[in-house]
Structures are given as C-alpha cells and as structure tokens.
C-alpha cells in the first residue's frame, strides 16, 4: 500500500466548523496530502504528479481528465 493510501485510510474524519472554515486538524491532513502529491517540492501539483499518485493507488484516469482536474483546481488555469 502506498504512503498516500495509508495516510488517507488512517486519518480521522475531517473536522469542519460551521461557516465552512477548516479547523487546524483538517489543514494538517490537507497539507500532508498535498506534500505527498508534490513530489518535486516546488509548491505545485502537476498533472504528471497527480497521475503518478493515482496510478499508485490503482486508479487509472485518462490524461484528459487529469488535465481537466488540474485546470479546475488551479488559480491560474495552468497545468
């Protein structure tokens, strides 16, 4: 099992406060997940990094969908 899968399976349910603000525990898990995706530690998750992690989790996704996901999540619209 990959490190990402272990983190996702071992984490408690996310703690969310009223008003939609994430509590500290949620931010910690999000940071851990992001750091696992950001393999080259440049502060960005590329399509290749996302595709690599999904394949390690046994999830096969077409390149076009990966690029769409990155584009939707990106503030700049870049991928």
Task: Describe the structure in brief.
Helix content is 54%, strand content 0%. It has four helices and no strands.
Uncertain stretches of 5 or more adjacent residues: 12-18
The name of the CATH topology is Recoverin, domain 1
Q: Separation of termini?
A: 28 Å
Radius of gyration: 14 Å
Report the structural category.
Answer: mainly alpha
Instruction: Specify the CATH class.
Output: Mainly Alpha
Number of helical elements: 4
Number of folding domains?
1
Secondary structure tally: strands: 0
What kind of sheet is the major sheet?
A: none
Q: What is the second-level CATH architecture?
A: Orthogonal Bundle
State which percent range the strand residues make up: under 5%
The arrangement of helices and strands along the chain is HHHH
GO molecular function, one term: calcium ion binding
Protein name: (Mediterranean fruit fly) hypothetical protein
Domain EF-hand: 25-60
InterPro entries: EF-hand-dom_pair (IPR011992), EF_Hand_1_Ca_BS (IPR018247), EF_hand_dom (IPR002048)
What does this structure look like?
- With 79 residues, this protein is an all-alpha fold.
- The chain has a single domain (3-73), classed as Recoverin, domain 1, CATH 1.10.238.
- The chain contains four helices and no strands.
- It has helices at residues 3-10, 24-37, 47-56, 63-73.
- The model is unreliable at 12-18 (pLDDT under 50).
């Amino acid at each position: 099992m990959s490190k990402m899968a272990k983190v996702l399976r071992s984490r408690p349910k996310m703690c969310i406060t009223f008003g939609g603000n994430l509590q500290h525990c949620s931010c910690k898990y999000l940071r851990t997940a992001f750091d696992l995706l950001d393999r080259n530690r440049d502060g960005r998750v590329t399509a290749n990094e996302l595709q690599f992690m999904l394949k390690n989790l046994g999830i096969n996704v077409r390149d076009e969908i990966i690029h769409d996901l990155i584009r939707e999540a990106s503030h700049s619209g870049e991928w």
